[in-house]
Structures are given as structure tokens and as C-alpha cells.
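Dissemination and training. As part of the outreach component of the grant, students in the summer workshop were shown how a complex can be specified as a set of sequence lines and then modelled as a single object. The example used during the hands-on session is reproduced here so that future cohorts can follow it. Participants entered these lines:
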Amino acid sequence: MTPGSYLPGHFLPVAIFLFVGIAVGVGMLVFSRLVSPRRPYREKLMTYESGITPFSDAHQKFSIRYYIIAMLFLIFDIEAVFLYPWAVAYDRIGLYGLVEMVIFIIILLVGYVYAWKKGALEWE
Amino acid sequence: MINQLIFAYFAAVIVVSAVLVITRKNPVHSVMFMLLLFFHIAGVFVLLNAEFLAAVQLIVYAGAILILFLFVVILLSVERESQAARANRFWPWLAGFGLIIAGEIALLVLRGSFPGEGKMAVQVAGAGVRDLGVVLYSKFLVPFEISSVILLVGLIGAVMLAKKKTNE
Amino acid sequence: MPDMQQIINFIITIGIPVVVLLSFILANAMYLQLMERKVLAHMQSRLGPMRTGWHGLLQPVADAVKFMFKEDIIPAKADKWVFSLAPLIFLVMAFGAFVAIPFGPDTVIFGRTVHLWVSNLNIGVLYIVALAGIGTYGVIMAGWASNNKYSLMGGFRSAAQMISYEIPMAFAIVTVALMAGSLNLTEIVQAQSQKWFIIVFPVGPVAFFLYLIAGVAETNRAPFDLPEAESELVAGYFTEYSGIRFGIFYMAEYMNMMIVSLLASIMFLGGWMPVQIFPKLLGGIPPISWINTALAAIPPTLWLLAKLYFFIFFYMWIRATLPRYRYDQLMTIAWKILLPISLGTLLVAAFMKQAGWM
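and obtained this result:
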């Protein structure tokens, strides 16, 4: 097999289906556009703010807590990605693999405990 | 023939969206084009029979790193940034550096030889996740364990930074 | 030049499955709304929709027509492109995940062996996890693009909740992958032919429970429907959405629910395997063996669908039963309770497999 000659056949339906999904979504939007009324006026297009006239822009500086959550998520997501091939290959790598993974997880647990102690998991 | 056309499509979208990422004024729009970019990179991985890497590309890059970018961009309230001038006075220098790096890459591709050339990269390790796991957890044990230390440093750094901010 | 045979082959192997799956998804996305309204109504001693058709059977059609014909408002201050794109991303990601779901073993229909899946991906589970992760963008984009304080808050809360619960969910899935030794959904079902993973003590039930909780949180449903807590955030990230775009969000949420339920059935409840009453212990004793034979005679796909609707009913049931959590409680559950438990479960499963107890 030479490079460029390979076609991943079982991904063809995936591509087709994603395309169908986009077509269904766009189709609904287009159809609705054709049949629905459009009578905009200033008050209708105003941002909703429980009945009062909106003051200040909604795009303001936000709480840092979300940033910590995203960062923690990133770390553990990468850990999970490492775990998938390990789990699948587990019956071939055996005890050796188990010890390796325990070390890996313990190193990350140190960080987890640190984050917990520092209160990064708190949502105050 | 058809696979080269598919590859050409992926490559074209990758280049175009990469250019769009750096030219958009609104950082949130940049992130959107970056998502498109990552999707098509995953497509190239699929074409190389590296379906696990394609999934990782989506899970880690699109699903985690880019989410972090998006959070930061929105949290820092980008509207003010996007009104600033697009380039600062250093731009000729930066463009020069960029050209040099691009030239080096071009030279490498044109003149250099690659050890895996003529073979599919993933054929060496086998296409399956299982084979990848066996190789990763026996042959590349040390890099794997080191990666956990890198993750640990990232975790501690994030906590340090964030906590310093809230204590102010 | 492709000849006639190739074209026919293409239509049979890809065209028909795609069309069947498409109609299945769309019909469910419409009718699950009616099911939810009916179930909730009867749990609260009401009748629910009764006027449109027999017992409200045409209500979804009426809703669909109304979504289509309503004015689709884009607020003046909204970011128009991102606002329009967000529901589409959410929809396509929910929709695309169905490709990898196997609905039954290979079956002979009209003298032809037919696969009951559209694509049998080797990385099936990972593919679904990846798409689910990208669905988060739809939520943040909708919240940000609306330029509305409620939307932005709702979008952020929703996204933070989804990513937080993705971690225990991923660990629960890894536990299943470890037990099955595969990421391919068909192989995961086949690995359960002796014993469903939910009854592999002690890790099976724990992983199942973790997955179930994370699944409810992932789909933003009660008791984790904080982003849509109407008393504080109006409608969360889709406050500013109306007409068909709102309809798309609504449908996509039901699709996500179906995906989570299907995965739960496939990974823990043996997919399309029939229920058997103590096959090893009491399987030979007459009245029970008759029941077991009768249960095994039901077509596999019906078993999978029965499990799917059981989970969906369960979701509606807990929505009617449980009050909503507070946001800080929600985060504490994900990071301080579910995460350590899921990691522990995984390690115990690995130990058990190493010791040969599984």
C-alpha cells in the first residue's frame, strides 16, 4: 500500500451522514425563512432583560472560575485520552501496563490533591 | 485519484481557515475558524488510516484546548481588543522571521528525505488502537511517564495563577 | 466509470441505512417531546396534550409547523453569523453521533445479510465522545452571540457543567473499554454475551451509575438543568432564540438524550441481548426456561429499542421527581465525588482483570 492510495471506506458513511445532518439543518432554516413572516422593529430586536431597557453590554469581564474549570478539564481529558489505548491493549501488556498506569495516575493525583487543598475545586 | 481530490479538499480548507484565523478582527470568530481547521486536520488523519489520532485531535484539540481558548477570549471580553490596531510597529520584523521559517520548511520538504517515506506512517505501528497501546506502553514508557509530569506542572501552574488572581 | 452493480451496491449498503436512520432520528426527535409531556402530565395527575389528534398524537406535527412558521428573530445586538451557526453545530454533532451506533447483529433480510449499522467504526465510542465534546461549542456560541446577560451566563454555566461531567463519563467509558478490550460498539456488545457489564461486581454497577449521572448532566436535564433554571436565568443560552432555531436546539437536545441512552444500553445492558432470568442458576427449570426461550425469541433490535425507551422514560421520571441542584453543589459532585470514584473504579477493574476475576 502506497501513501495516498488508501481510502477509509468505513468513514464514507460518516462523511455522508454528517453532510445529511448539515443539509437537514440548513434545509429547515431555509424553509422557515421562506414561510415565516419578518416584521422587525426596534423594540422587537432589543435584547431581552426581564422587561427593562438593557443597560451596558453583556460582553464584560467574567469570573476566573470558569478558566480554572476549563484548565482542569483539559488536564484530565488528556489523561483520559491516554487511558483509551491502555484499556484496549490491557490484555496484551498485563501487569507491566498496570504498574505503569498506576504511577501515571499517582503523579496526576498529586496535582489533583494540590488543586483540592488550594481550593481550586471550590465554587465559592 | 479520488483520494487525492479528498486530500486536496482537506488541505485547501486547512490553509484557508488558518489564514482566516489570523486575519479575523474578532477573536471569537478566529476560534470558530480554528474549530473548522481542527476538523479538517482530523479528516487528514482519517485519510492516513490513523483514526485514533483523528479522534484525539477532536477530543483534545477541538474539545478541550480550543474550549479553553474560547473561555479565555470571552472571559477577557474581546470587543475592546478587536478595536485595537491590527499590527504593531514590529510587524516587518515578524514578517521577516515568518518568511525565514517558511523558507526553511520549504527547503526541508523539497530537499530533505524522510525515514518513513513511501510507507504509511501508521502501518509501522498498525492501524488499530490496540497496537498503538501496546507500542506506547512498552516501547515508549519513559516519554509516557514524563508526559504525566508535564501535565502535573500544567495543573499546578493553572491553580497557582488562578488562585493568585482571586486573592487580590 | 462505475457500473450499475456498484451503484446498486452503494445504495443498498449506504443509501438505505442512512435514510432509515435519518427517519428514525427525526421521528424520535419529534415524538419524544410528546412522550415527555405525556409522562410528566400523568405523573402530575394531568392529561397533557389531548386536542390535536387522538390523545394529542398530532401535537408534534402541530409544533413542527408552528416552529417553521414563526418569526425567526435575530436581536439587533447579536453577532449574526455566530448566532445562526450555533444551533447548526449543536444539531449536526448530535445527529452525526448516530452513525456509529449498532442497532443489532447482522440479520438476513430478503436473502441478504444486512448490517444493522451505518458504519462499524473501530473507535466507535471515541467518535461519539469527540462529537459530544464539540457539541459544547453550540452552547457557548449561542450564549455569547446573543449578547444577552442571561444567555452568556447560561452558556457558560452549561459549558462548564458539560466539560466537568465529561471527565467521570470518560473514565466510566474507559472502564467499559477495559472490560470489553475494545472501543468498537459491536464488539462491546459481543463481549457481554456471557454477562452484562452492569452485573460484573463490583465495578460494573458503579461505572453504570457514574455514567448515568454524568449522562443526565451532559444533556443538561433535571436535576442538573441549571443552565435552564428559569427562575434565575430565563431560558439559559437559548433565551434569545425563537422560531426554527429554537426548534433545532429543542430537537438536538432530544437527540443527545437518545445517544446517551443508546450508549448506556450498549455499554452496560448488553445492547441487543435479550433479558434472561438467571440463565445459569435456574435456566433449566421448566417455567423459567419457557420464559427465557420466549424472551430470547424477541428480535434483538426490539430489545435495544426497549432499553433505549426505558432510559428515556427514566430521564423523564427523575425530572418529575427530583428538585434542581444548586450550581456549586453541581460542581462539587463532578469534581470531588464523581471524579475520584470513577478513577478508583477504573483501577479496581484493572486489578480484577489482572487477577483474573473477570
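Residues 9-117 of chain A form a domain with the Methane Monooxygenase Hydroxylase; Chain G, domain 1 fold (CATH 1.20.58.1610). Students were then asked to discuss how this feature might be tested experimentally.
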